[in-house]
Design a protein that fits this description.
The protein has 9 helices and 4 strands, in the order ααααβαβαββααα. By secondary structure, it is α+β, with helices and mostly antiparallel strands.
């Protein structure tokens, strides 16, 4: 395993630990990461409500349950996230639900700003975009793929909006949240499983 990735695991969270950590920070009027601005704290508060709802409502499809339960190898799923990230709030609950379906997947979460060296191994078009799921074969310790920061159709929605309006503003973010609401985590599940089956 890449030594940078290996080192990061010592300060990684389980999903429950991550949720508790972010909740605790929100209670103190803080967020994760280096930017403690009012906007970032506000986004984190919104995400707390979103995570709470999605933890209850998000469901893994029957097809994906079957695929996960038939995995032959063991995997480590390492997610790079931050509490203020809207995409992470949409994607982490479904990744967690997927990992719970099978004993073949161990899910760990690290914070981007605390693990810049790991983040820089998995840039998206040169940017530190999150969330990023890194899929590691536990036997060979090799990275077999990565997913993120959002499903392909959601990426396209933002690209199209930026092409038309020149910016990604609050309206774009609202449109993106509507897309996630309609998709119900299905695209995320299918794209991750496509990487697992390669």
């Amino acid at each position: 395993m890449n030594p940078i990735i290996k080192k990061s695991l010592s300060s990684s969270f389980s999903y429950a630990e991550y949720r508790n950590h972010v909740t605790s920070l929100v209670a103190q009027g803080k967020t994760t990461g280096s930017d403690q601005s009012e906007a970032m704290i506000h986004y984190t508060e919104l995400n707390e409500a979103r995570l709470h709802r999605l933890d209850k409502t998000m469901e893994v499809t029957e097809e994906v349950i079957s695929q996960l339960q038939n995995l032959k190898k063991k995997y480590l799923w390492l997610v790079i996230s931050e509490g203020w990230c809207g995409d992470a709030a949409q994607i982490l609950p479904i990744i967690n639900k997927m990992a719970l379906v099978t004993e073949k997947i161990e899910l760990r979460i690290i914070l981007r700003d605390d693990h810049v060296e790991v983040m820089n191994l998995f840039l998206t078009n040169g940017t530190q975009s999150i969330p990023k799921l890194i899929i590691i074969n536990q036997e060979t310790e090799e990275v077999i793929g990565d997913f993120g920061p959002r499903p392909d159709d959601a990426k396209q929605l933002i690209l199209d909006y930026k092409a038309e309006h020149g910016v990604v503003d609050e309206t774009a973010k609202i449109e993106l949240q509507k897309w996630y609401l309609h998709d119900k985590g299905v695209s995320t599940q299918n794209e991750i499983m496509a990487l697992m089956m390669e």
